[in-house]
Write a structure and sequence with these properties.
Elements lengths: L4 E5 L4 E2 H7 L5 H4 L3 E3 L2 E2 L6 E2 L4 E5 L9 E6 L2 E6 L15 H9 L7 E2 L8 E7 L2 H13 L3 E8 L7 E4 L3 E3 L2 E3 L3 E8 L10 E7 L6 H8 L15 E3 L5 E3 L5 E9 L4 E5 L4 H10 L5 H7 L26
Parallel strand pairs: 10-19
Antiparallel strand pairs: 1-6, 2-5, 3-4, 3-6, 7-8, 8-10, 9-10, 11-16, 11-19, 12-15, 13-14, 15-16, 17-18, 19-20
Amino acid sequence: MGSRIQRWVVESESSLEDFLRGVGVADTARDEGRVFLNRKRVRGDEYRVAPGDVVSLGSPRGAGAPLDILDERKGFYAVHKPASLPTLPDRNSDRSLLSELADTLDVPRTSLGAVSRLDVGVSGIVLVWSNEESLEAAEEAKLRGSHYRRYLGITSAAPKDDRGRWTTPIPQRGGQKAADTRYAVSRQLPATDRDSAAALLVLEPVTGRSHQLRIHTSAAGSPLFGDRRYGGVLRVTGDDGGVHQLSRIALHCAVVELPLADEVWRVSCPAPVELENWWERLGGQVQDFPAALDSESLVVRHAPNQGPGPPTRRVRKNRS
C-alpha cells in the first residue's frame, strides 16, 4: 500500500515553519522528508508560503527512506530509486517507484510512466513523465538517441582495455537485440591475496536493453559485485578476516540528461553510502566517486531540441 497524504491549501502568507505548527505538524516531519511545498520536497526552516500554495504531508513509513524527488521540469520528475524498490509493480508486490510517486503527488498511478527502468538491486535516477507532452518529449529523445545516462559500477575485475565499447547483442523475447555500451575504468585497485583487482567503472549505455549493463560487464569478464544472476561476486573477506556480503547490485545511475525545448536538463545523484562503504572495504576511497562523475563523457552529448525532428512514435519502454 502507498503512504497516505495530507494536504492543505495556504490562505495567508507566513513562514512554512509557522504554517506547519498551525496545522499540528511536528517539526521532525521536514527532517524526515515528509513535507512537500507545491509537490517539491522541502527541508529546513527557510521556506515561506503564500496564498494558493499547496502543502502536503506524507505519512511515516515503516521501512526504508522516503521517496526522494530530485528535480521537476516540464512535466518530468527525476526520482531517486532505492535499490530494493522496483521501478514498476512486479509479481512480488504492487509497491513500486511509480506507485510511490503517484501516492506522493496524489495522482492516478496510470498517469505516470518511466522514461527508462532500473532493475531491482540497482539504484539511481529514473525520469518519470506525467502528461502527454512529457511522454512525447521522452519518445522523441529516444528516437534521437539523446537520452543520456551515466552509471557507476563496481566490478570484481577490470576490463582488458581502460576504455572502449561493448556491442554484444542482448537476448530478448523472440531473438537478440543490438546493444551498445561505452565504458571507462575510472580507477582500478591492486589485487590482494584474497581478491582480484576490483574496478570502478563509468558506464554510458547508447541503447537501453533489459539488463544491458549487467550482461555487458559480465561478458567482458568484469561482472558487477552483488549480481548473482550474471556471475557477480557476492562476498569478500575483509582485512579483519570477516566475510562481508553486498545485498544489492553495485550499479548506480548517477547522471541523466534530457534535451528539452530550450535547455539540456541535467540531474545528478551521488552514489549511496552502501556502495561507498563497499568500495572502501575493497581498498578504494570515497573521493573516487566524484572523480568518476566529473570525468569526460564517453558518448556524443546533445544540444536542446531545435526545430522539427524525426516523426514521434510510440516506443516500448525498455529497462536500462
